[in-house]
Give the backbone structure.
Amino acid sequence: MSSALAESFAWCKSLTKRTAGNFYFSFLTLPADQLRDMGVLYAFMRGTDDLGDDLSLPVADREAALSIWQAELHAALNGDDTQHPVFPALTDLVQRCGIPPEYLDAVIEGVRMDLFPRGFETFEELSRYCYHVAGAVGLCCIHIWGFEGDAALPLAVDCGLAFQLTNILRDLGEDAAMGRVYLPREDLERFGYRQEDIETHCRDR
């Protein structure tokens, strides 16, 4: 392993230990090589999320930052030199585990979608969003853990959907305060509930 690659793995490990919270402790149950690789994947995902969540910047600047990040990802995967410390380890991970790069692009697109929250008319639309922010992550994970047969792929997407729906229900009030309502409008209408009810924490309808 080159010194640059070793430094990249060390940087990802340090970031994961410092910021992953309970995720890091769950990673500790994995074999050493998978623990290391999950740290790399987490570091990339965390970097992507942070670019989208930087409220000190206007939305247009965050969108531009995500585009630069995506271009740097593609450059790294093409073998070009990049500046960010996550990319040597991420490139190694993608090559060793056969992670399709489009999964990483999907995650970036999911963060980009949150820059311009418009809600969802149908559950199908919400499911597409959940694929980008969670299902694609699950697909990356099973490439690290190992799987047999293509039947595992839709199951990983389904698990991501379940996790993200749980997050949405847990964070209804917090998201509404930021102008984000993820529950499909068709379901709100079906149950006689309004976006305003979520924003005002109304539970009596």
Summary: The chain has a mean pLDDT of 93. The two ends are 61 Å apart (CA to CA).
